[in-house]
Amino acid sequence: MTAGTARREDQFPVGAALRLSELERFDNAQLLRRLRESEPVSWFAEQGVWLVTAKPLIDEVQNDSRNYIVDTEQNPNGAVLGRMMLAVDGAEHSRQRAPFAAPFKRGAVHARLSSVVEAQIERLLAHIESSGEAELAMAFANPFAVSIASDVLGLELASFDEVHAIYTEFANGVVNYRDPNARKATIRAREQLTGLVMPIIEQRRCHPDDSLLSSVLRSEHLLSTDEELLANLRVILFGAIETVESMILNTAWALLHHREQLMAALADASLWPAVVQEGLRWIPPVGYSDRWTTQTVQLGGVTIPSGEYVVPVFAAANRDPGTFPDPDRFDISRGDDRRNLSFGKGIHMCLGVNLARLQGSLALKSLFERLPNLELNPERPSEPVGFNFRRPPHLYVRWRHL
């Protein structure tokens, strides 16, 4: 331990005592509260990063693309998924994002994709509703997320199990980015995904259609290489699959532990957008983002040198009582409150936020309306876990078939 590291641990005792395993637990709200109240900017000694847990300070970091950047070789997302829009800044970020932006605007999403989302929900629920029980991740949430991502992009990804395995490796690679074995596994997963999508890209070049992929290929904001196109497709798929699947599972889990909230939503269909927002706030699928300082900065009275890893913790911001009264309570009566940071903020805010909200509202509404008396299977319990990516490892449910 260097003298500088020792001084940091003396200055930030809560962060010095912290362990990643504690943050990965579902019941980490009290720990995040202690950090937010006593060390809102803290040196997390075990991981060698700065944690930011107060929402105003997180907003400051997310909105300041001059002092806090993502374009560095240390970025786990870039290392795993390639040099794409979430791993670059400034004009480079704008250029890479531009070809994908228009189809994901709210009006375009609702006009073009509502019927696509509804059709996939109907197909999946019709397949399972007579069984009376299911593991909700693999029976519904994952194939739903993969199928919508595939349809929207025009990638025709038919092998849900294979795509799920690929993105499991990507998620593991981001979490364990310092592990050489995890890095090797993500390289294999990238090659596997390229094998699935590159023939479709070549087909769309020869025979354009009305898919987002064809739109990107003929865009005036052309991506410079096939690898740049592939890297951005990887990250869009990552968000469209990992985040949407987790959002559905987390919110379903929350509703099944708060039956009075579920009954209110079933009685008033206009509440489902609020259900989605509260589910995202209470259990964010992605717990934090990554930034690096470009120069010595002052944040919340703490001096952070240049080139250091700063981690704005969305899970803590979403429980900040200055923004969300009684923040540890799951409460859909907060309304369609979009101040939570589960989709990020600033120039790197999630591209697919409007589609994800639409998917969540329609999927959860249909799930609970179509499967009468849906409940957790008490013989196979689980709860959301994880710090970076947060969801139940599985979600076994049952219902009364009518």
Topology:
Layout: H1 3-11, H2 13-17, H3 20-24, H4 29-38, E1 41-44, E2 49-52, H5 55-63, E3 68-69, H6 76-81, H7 90-101, H8 106-128, E4 133-135, H9 136-153, H10 160-175, H11 180-206, H12 212-217, H13 226-256, H14 259-267, H15 272-282, E5 291-293, E6 297-299, E7 302-304, E8 309-312, H16 314-317, H17 353-370, E9 375-376, E10 396-398
Parallel strand pairs: 2-8
Antiparallel strand pairs: 1-2, 3-5, 4-10, 5-8, 6-7, 9-10
Structure explained in plain terms:
- By secondary structure, this protein is α+β, with helices and mostly antiparallel strands.
- The chain is 54% helix and 8% strand.
- The chain contains 17 helices and ten strands.
- The protein has helices spanning 3-11, 13-17, 20-24, 29-38, 55-63, 76-81, 90-101, 106-128, 136-153, 160-175, 180-206, 212-217, 226-256, 259-267, 272-282, 314-317, 353-370; strands at residues 41-44, 49-52, 68-69, 133-135, 291-293, 297-299, 302-304, 309-312, 375-376, 396-398.
- A hairpin with a 2-residue loop joins strand 6 (297-299) and strand 7 (302-304).
- The longest helix has 31 residues, at 226-256.
